[in-house]
Fold:
Amino acid sequence: MENALVDLAQALRERLAAIRDEQSRDDEAKHIARLRSVSEKIDRLQAALPQPVDPRLAHYLQRRSYDKALEFLESL
Structure:
């Protein structure tokens, strides 16, 4: 489970980096594709998490509260 959580945290960081990347926004199509790709990666990693998932983490991921999910993972 440890690796799954590490991978998920890294994907959440990737998403935050994409959002914060001002230069990436210059090419809107590329920026949206990058966000879509990392969001799909997060979805795949979330689906692959061993059960049971901590209820707080599950809540954050279901609500797409990715900042809170990352904070939660970093506090472990």
